[in-house]
Amino acid sequence: MAAGQPKRLSEKILESFIFSLSPVKKTAAELEVYRLRREVTKILDSGKYTSEDVLALAVLEFNLGNYSESLKLMSNLSSKSLRYLQILTVAKLTLVHSSVFIEESENSVIGQYFNSKLNKMNEPLNYIVYLHSIFGIRTRYSLKSELPFNIYYKSENELSWTCGPFENDEQIVLYEEPNKARQLHVLLENNIQNKIINQEFTDKHRNFLQNFLDAEEVEHLIQEFTPREIDRNKDYSQYIAVSL
Predict the structure, then answer these.
(1) Rounded mean pLDDT of 113-118?
(2) pTM: predicted TM-score of the whole model, two decimal places
(3) Radius of gyration (C-alpha) of the chain in whole angstroms
(4) Integer Cα distance of 98 and 181 in angstroms
(5) Cβ atoms 56, 102 nearer than 8 A
(6) Which three-class secondary structure state does DSSP give residue 147?
(7) CA dihedral of 28, 101, 164, 135, whole degrees rounded to 10
(8) Which whole number is the average pLDDT over 63-77?
(9) 172 and 166 in contact (C-beta within 8 Å)?
């Protein structure tokens, strides 16, 4: 695009929208999505459209909750380049991880990506999901806002993730059952717990979590997993072990 040339509508849409699993209600925001869909549909009906126009329509349909139509549009693009295949794979995994039924499993989606002829470089697949809450052993911590969680599928059996100052590499077995969600929040929870138990939980971890939890909730979380000395005078025989 030449310098100073205005961006096309589809470019603006693709810069602004993410794969949201919470379709907007009958609000001004939803009406705007419908308006944009009408405008992009006109472009496609004119016959003078690009692949990016099709992708923009697919993203709009996804955000309206029309997942089947969105995936169909993206599937038609996926044979054109690795970029479109990545976008389709991310869209499918977003649905699979959230137990939105699409008749595909994590195993089939990831397998198709890493075994694709387009994926000659065996590039890691990365994207962002948004966690809505953190579950402790006994307490649910409701987040003030969605927590961004970056996922990297390095291969069919290795997953890496980052979430602010928290990160880890995980060896995984892909789920073969359709519509079985991967509990991504558990990866973060385990990492938080381990950092507290191993006394590796620092101010940077505390400050990050306080962007999403009340200060009291963060303190409770820390107290929940801080190791305590065993009281040798106490009878623990009646206590029931809590499974992590």
Answers:
(1) 84
(2) 0.81
(3) 22
(4) 6
(5) no
(6) strand
(7) 100
(8) 93
(9) no
